[in-house]
Amino acid sequence: MSNTRYSELGGFLRSRRERIRPEEVGIAPGPRRRVPGLRRDEVAVLAGASVEYYTELERGAGSQPSDQMLAALARALRLSRDERDHLYRLANRPIPHRSGTASHVHPAMLDLLTRIDGTPAMVCTDLHTVLVQNSLAIAMLGDLSAHHGSAASFIYRWFTDPAARQTYPQEDLAPQSRSFVADLRAAVGRRSAGDAEATELVDELLRRSPEFQALWADQDVEVRRDERKRIVHPTVGLLDLNCLSLFSEDGRQRLLWFTPRAGTDTAEKLALLTVVGTQAMQTGPVR
């Protein structure tokens, strides 16, 4: 990158940081703040970067940021789609696909996710690629946004990697498989004919999974709006949950949040999980 581009990138990051109020991203403002908006260290924490690295970016120095870092910064700074695209151009990176791991999450959906701090929640695409999770969702399910390529889609992992099913009770596997496939068919139908991303995912699953091939041939269609989820957590045990969805206007993304089912001890276990946090979580490919 040229020095001019680095300088423009740093100035743009600084301008976006200064416009955000701490409470908008779940940070208590405190009585003695001396800067408008967020501090550099707060942006770094929100984006999962070191303070030194982010500071270098704002100063127009350092190495070219990766696609993953740009996506994290866009979410931390609540950028609009146009602002996100501008950030990628300043960093001399290609604009990411709409449903990949670097997909833009609408600021309003991120804001809602920030405010849901008492229950696990996350945002994923219509092809079941997790984009962002709150801390309790990470503690419950592991960091699901860490996968890349075809494996970024949980449906792909569900039908190609036995480890993806390990935290589901055995009797729940078949219903989950059928539900995933019916939801995927609905997603493919919503997209334009010949959509490359969806077509590639389906073709790969048809090639690799006889189970998926048989279920796909049934042509069942049903959007996953709300359902029961039972998850066996390695520390707190069985969690019996309601999984609810809020969809974006175009149906390409959904906010999922999990609430304890009435008459179970799941509320107490979630409270314990909040204390235990990610320290005790063996990162797992569950969703």
UniProtKB/TrEMBL annotation:
Highest taxon listed in the record's lineage: Bacteria
Xref: Pfam families: HTH_31, MLTR_LBD
InterPro entries xrefs: Cro/C1-type_HTH, Lambda_DNA-bd_dom_sf, MLTR_LBD
Coiled coil feature spans: none
Location of the HTH cro/C1-type domain: 37-84
SUPFAM superfamilies found in the cross-reference section: lambda repressor-like DNA-binding domains (SSF47413)
Protein name: Transcriptional regulator with XRE-family HTH domain
Annotated source species: Streptomyces demainii
